[in-house]
């Protein structure tokens, strides 16, 4: 199993990079574990207080559960991945069944900030993008998908997203094996990454065949 961590600022194009990797590999070989699915449950907090929670700092994530689920997948076990609602800021009762696969992608803004998770990653990727481009994407996404107004999004960017990006996300870039500038539009970098993934998978398959031959 090859575990890939893909990090980067909000609106940097991480999802685009993930989708292009998935489309380049045979169906069923890749599973994605979004970091956002592992936000700590906030259902015990009054609704009016949930909007004040900082979801862009490492403490907002239940890293221990994410790490445990990765360990179970590596052992060949099926996991029940949690789901999270951005509208209510709570973990949902529904879970997603995830089976082991040749490639597991852990994607999220803070993926490279946790040292335990970082040590489990075979490939660490940081998707980089211009701050203005990221802000434009965040405004479009949050207004359409999360029911926020442009004013709310911009205020949140200035008060939370930008400071947290500077404090946690941008510094985590130094842990990356590969930095993808220009986000999902950098076809050359994405092709290099997918070629490397495919070569790793081929080497793993070859070792498996050789091991069976020896046996």
Shape: globular
Q: What gap, in angstroms, lies between the N and C termini?
A: 21 Å
Radius of gyration: 18 Å
If you average the pLDDT, what whole number results? 87
Element string (H = helix, E = strand): EHEHHEEEHEHHEH
Give a structural overview.
The chain is α/β, with parallel strands linked by helices and 215 residues long. The chain is built from seven helices and seven strands, in the order E-H-E-H-H-E-E-E-H-E-H-H-E-H. The protein has helices spanning 14-24, 47-50, 63-74, 115-120, 131-145, 150-169, 187-214; strands spanning 2-8, 30-34, 79-85, 90-98, 103-107, 123-127, 178-180. The strands form two sheets. A five-stranded parallel sheet has the order 2-5-1-6-7, with helices on one face. Strands 3-4 form a two-stranded antiparallel sheet. A hairpin with a 4-residue loop joins strand 3 (79-85) and strand 4. The longest helix has 28 residues, at 187-214. It is globular and about 55 Å long. The protein starts with a strand and ends with a helix.
Describe how the helices and strands are arranged:
Layout: E1 2-8, H1 14-24, E2 30-34, H2 47-50, H3 63-74, E3 79-85, E4 90-98, E5 103-107, H4 115-120, E6 123-127, H5 131-145, H6 150-169, E7 178-180, H7 187-214
Parallel strand pairs: 1-5, 1-6, 2-5, 6-7
Antiparallel strand pairs: 3-4
Question: Notable features of this structure?
Answer:
five-stranded parallel sheet, 7 strands, globular, disordered C terminus, two-stranded antiparallel sheet, alpha/beta, 215 residues
């Amino acid at each position: 199993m090859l575990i890939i961590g893909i990090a980067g600022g909000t609106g940097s194009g991480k999802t685009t990079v993930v989708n292009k990797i998935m489309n380049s590999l045979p169906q069923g070989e890749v599973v994605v574990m979004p970091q956002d699915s592992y936000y700590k449950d906030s259902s015990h907090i009054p609704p009016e207080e949930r909007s004040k929670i900082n979801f862009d700092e490492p403490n907002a994530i239940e890293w221990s559960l994410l790490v445990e689920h990765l360990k179970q997948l590596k052992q060949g076990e099926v996991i029940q991945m949690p789901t999270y609602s951005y509208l209510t800021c709570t973990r949902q009762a529904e879970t997603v069944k995830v089976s082991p696969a040749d490639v597991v992608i852990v994607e999220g803004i803070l993926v490279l900030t946790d040292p335990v998770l970082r040590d489990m990653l075979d490939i660490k990727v940081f998707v980089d993008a211009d701050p203005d481009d990221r802000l434009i994407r965040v405004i479009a996404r949050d207004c359409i998908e999360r029911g926020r107004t442009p004013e709310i999004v911009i205020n949140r960017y200035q008060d939370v997203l930008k400071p947290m990006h500077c404090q946690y996300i941008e510094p985590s870039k130094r842990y990356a094996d590969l930095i993808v500038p220009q986000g999902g539009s950098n076809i050359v970098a994405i092709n290099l990454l997918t070629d490397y993934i495919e070569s790793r998978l081929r080497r793993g398959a070859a070792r498996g065949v050789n091991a069976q031959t020896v046996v």
